[in-house]
């Protein structure tokens, strides 16, 4: 087991926990999707797992170590929600910051670091933009650059906060395909926050859906049901099976509230 959470709590304000009694685990190469309404605590959960926020209590075992009080967790790559950069960096210079797993802009990278960056950019199919300025990229390209930066420290666990938001359908597929490929071919486990059930059903093995007072967690097919959509999102839906290229593609049609 790569990550195991037991009875974890987190609150921004005393005695008002946002995350209550959270328990789940993730194996090597598994993809876990986190879902839930706006403001329910998904980003908070990702930040606690990544060590950006400190759990109030519970046990969080990552790679055999209890990380409940860790300041910086090695081997976790974190990709925050899409954002514009305050400064303009070349793609290769931004991605190389990921080499030491921090945003330490003052440590000079070496040639070996740039070689590793080049191979990652190549693997993600964005080598051709290595000398482009990040603030001149499209949203889809920028998202791939942030994923490259997170991969630059060779993480065992990749954490992505709504990676497909703001992207067109083609780029959503591209990002999802990349996440799935990294899990299958490199065994990189992934936790992904998403607002798109049809997307996560394409790539996730497990799913955790949060609400204010409870959550549900399990295999994706047992969790992503019409009942869960009604109970956690207050929306009526119909889950249909479509056939595409000889594969079954389960998809929700959202009918109304
Ligand atoms: N730094 C903070 N201090 C106090 N409260 C916060 C802080 N950050 C977030 N919150 C609150 O915690 C709750 C959960 O926020 P969070 O960003 O984790 O939700 P989310 O499920 O990721 O939302 P969304 O789907 O809209 O991105 C919200 O009510 C938010 O206002």
Automatic annotation (TrEMBL):
<dbReference type="Pfam" id="PF00005">
    <property type="entry name" value="ABC_tran"/>
</dbReference>
<dbReference type="GO" id="GO:0005524">
    <property type="term" value="F:ATP binding"/>
</dbReference>
<dbReference type="GO" id="GO:0016887">
    <property type="term" value="F:ATP hydrolysis activity"/>
</dbReference>
<dbReference type="InterPro" id="IPR017871">
    <property type="entry name" value="ABC_transporter-like_CS"/>
</dbReference>
<dbReference type="InterPro" id="IPR050153">
    <property type="entry name" value="Metal_Ion_Import_ABC"/>
</dbReference>
<dbReference type="InterPro" id="IPR003593">
    <property type="entry name" value="AAA+_ATPase"/>
</dbReference>
<dbReference type="InterPro" id="IPR027417">
    <property type="entry name" value="P-loop_NTPase"/>
</dbReference>
<protein>
    <submittedName>
        <fullName>Iron ABC transporter ATP-binding protein</fullName>
    </submittedName>
</protein>
<feature type="domain" description="ABC transporter">
    <location>
        <begin position="3"/>
        <end position="237"/>
    </location>
</feature>
<keyword id="KW-0547">Nucleotide-binding</keyword>
<dbReference type="InterPro" id="IPR003439">
    <property type="entry name" value="ABC_transporter-like_ATP-bd"/>
</dbReference>
<keyword id="KW-0813">Transport</keyword>
<keyword id="KW-0067">ATP-binding</keyword>
């Amino acid at each position: 087991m790569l990550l195991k959470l037991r009875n974890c709590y987190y609150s921004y304000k005393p005695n008002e926990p946002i995350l209550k009694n959270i328990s789940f685990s993730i194996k090597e190469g598994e993809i876990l999707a986190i879902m839930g309404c706006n403001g329910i605590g998904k980003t908070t959960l990702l930040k606690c797992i990544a060590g950006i926020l400190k759990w109030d209590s519970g046990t969080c075992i990552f790679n055999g170590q209890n990380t409940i009080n860790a300041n910086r967790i090695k081997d976790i790559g974190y990709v925050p929600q899409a954002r514009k950069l305050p400064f303009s960096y070349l793609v290769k210079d931004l991605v190389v910051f990921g080499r030491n797993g921090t945003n330490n802009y003052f440590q000079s990278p070496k040639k070996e670091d740039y070689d590793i960056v080049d191979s990652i950019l190549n693997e993600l199919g964005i080598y051709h933009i290595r000398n482009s300025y990040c603030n001149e990229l499209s949203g889809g390209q920028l998202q791939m650059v942030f994923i490259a930066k997170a991969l630059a420290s060779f993480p065992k666990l990749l954490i992505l906060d709504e990676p497909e938001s703001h992207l067109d359908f083609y780029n959503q597929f591209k990002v999802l395909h990349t996440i799935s490929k990294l899990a299958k071919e490199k065994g990189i486990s992934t936790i992904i926050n998403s607002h798109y059930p049809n997307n996560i059903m394409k790539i996730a093995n497990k799913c955790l859906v949060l609400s204010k007072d409870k959550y549900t967690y399990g295999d994706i097919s047992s969790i992503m049901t019409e009942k869960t959509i009604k109970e956690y999102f207050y929306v009526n839906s119909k889950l249909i099976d479509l056939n595409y290229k000889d594969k079954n593609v389960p998809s929700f049609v959202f009918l109304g509230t």
